[in-house]
Amino acid sequence: MFIISKKRYKYEEYHKEIDNVLYKKCAYHEEIFGEEKWLPCNEDYFYKNPKNKSDGLYPECKECAKVKSIKWSKENYERRKEILSKSQSKPERRDYVNGIKKKQKERGMFTKWRRENKDKVKEYNKLRYHKKHKISNKE
Ligand SMILES: [Zn+2]
Question: Does residue 24 register a pLDDT over 80?
Fold first, then answer.
């Protein structure tokens, strides 16, 4: 939601100098508070961001950073709660998965048995083949 692509973020659009003081426009203020906000471009109003090569500060002011972090943790909390309740409220899903696992295990065992008893299987298939052909000659 609060994502501004790097290409769209233009330094000139968010910075201006007034009376030899560099001001920076908060990139999120309008979205969060419904109004543009120009603040002195320094660490009193913006958190430090060493990764930002233009001014070394985050694009959002401290006020917005606070709102964002609250919103983020709240959303995260709710998402986690949702995932948790989903996985707990559906035991039949777990049974279903366990059933599949059991079947896969059984199938695996059968494959192993077949591999170890190749001759028996061959014999069995031969018998079955002949049996079928006695009943119908269509094959
Ligand atoms: Zn702001």
Answer: yes
